[in-house]
């Protein structure tokens, strides 16, 4: 059996709270959108830290991001 992803859990939360009703948008679309927002934010932080010549204390690669999502 495949482990639930963060996006799957987010989809269930959105559905369980009926948050999709406000926009009449399916929960899985909202979950995917929210996940893409998080991914974009992580990339923006990485770019900002690189711009300032700093090493980010956050996650640096897609493999690590995927590992962390599976562990939630």
Brief summary:
This protein is an all-alpha fold.
Your description of this structure?
It is flat and about 45 Å long. With 72 residues, it is mainly α. The chain has one domain. 64% of the residues lie in helices and 0% in strands. The chain has three helices and no strands. α1 packs across α2.
Main sheet specs: none
* Structural class computed from helices and strand pairing: mainly alpha
Q: What oligomeric state do the depicted chains represent?
A: single chain
Uncertain runs with pLDDT below 50, 5 residues or more?
A: none
Tally of helical runs: 3
- Portion in beta strands: under 5%
Number of domains as seen in the coordinates: 1
N-end to C-end Cα span? 17 Å
Mean pLDDT figure = 86
Q: N-to-C SSE series?
A: HHH
List the helices and strands and how they pair.
Layout: H1 6-16, H2 27-51, H3 62-71
Helix pairs in contact: 1-2
Task: Please supply descriptive tags for the structure shown above.
72 residues; mainly alpha; 3 helices; 64% helix
């Amino acid at each position: 059996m495949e482990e639930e992803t963060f996006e799957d859990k987010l989809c269930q939360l959105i559905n369980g709270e009926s948050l999709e009703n406000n926009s009449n948008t399916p929960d899985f679309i909202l979950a995917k959108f929210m996940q893409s927002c998080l991914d974009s934010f992580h990339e923006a932080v990485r770019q900002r830290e690189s711009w300032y010549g700093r090493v980010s204390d956050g996650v640096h690669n897609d493999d690590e991001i995927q590992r962390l999502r599976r562990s939630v």
